[in-house]
Amino acid sequence: MTNRRLTLSVAAAVVALDQLTKWMALSAFDDGPTEVIGDFLVFRLVRNPGAAFNSLQGSGVLIGLVAVVVVLALIRLSGSTEHRSEALVFGLILGGAIGNLADRAFRGDGFLDGAVIDWIDLWFIPTFNVADSSLTIGAVLAVVVSLLQKSDQ
Questions:
Q1: Which end of the chain, N or C, is more open, meaning fewer C-beta atoms within 10 Å of its C-beta?
Q2: 81 three-state secondary structure
Q3: 15 vs 120: CA distance, rounded Å
Q4: What is the pTM of this model?
Q5: What is d(CA 106, CA 97) in angstroms, rounded to the nearest whole number?
Q6: Which candidate, 53, 55, 68, places its Cα nearest to that of 104?
Q7: Is the predicted pLDDT of residue 55 greater than 70, yes or no?
Q8: Which region, left, alpha or beta, applies to residue 150 given φ > 0 means left and ψ of -120 to 50 means alpha?
Q9: What angle is formed at CA 6 by the lines to CA 5 and CA 9, rounded to 5 degrees?
């Protein structure tokens, strides 16, 4: 499997899992939150029209346009990765970006103005979703991979 194919496969898996869990959250938690582990872990439906941590409220179109640019750049760059670990990182970030971009594109009335569906609420982290997790894990792994590659030189 080529690195580009690995990137796209990982991204597709993330998008599928993200959209499936958002669909589940919309039907399961619309009536109210579900405590899983007391106040530590609660499944709570939140519609976020802004950016991470509920910042930049009302900037959905701008955030969506930035996400489109990021998605296109990652698809283009995915063909130039030298290591499978880089392809995996690109796939995680790409899948997370597409997952949340899909909400902005298809869950609103206008151009990229849909709210992102968040539903996992850990007491110390603002409510998030699978796409957010994928983006975060991808970013952390990007730093780790970069550091490991520099130490091999």
A1: C
A2: coil
A3: 16
A4: 0.90
A5: 14
A6: 68
A7: no
A8: alpha
A9: 85
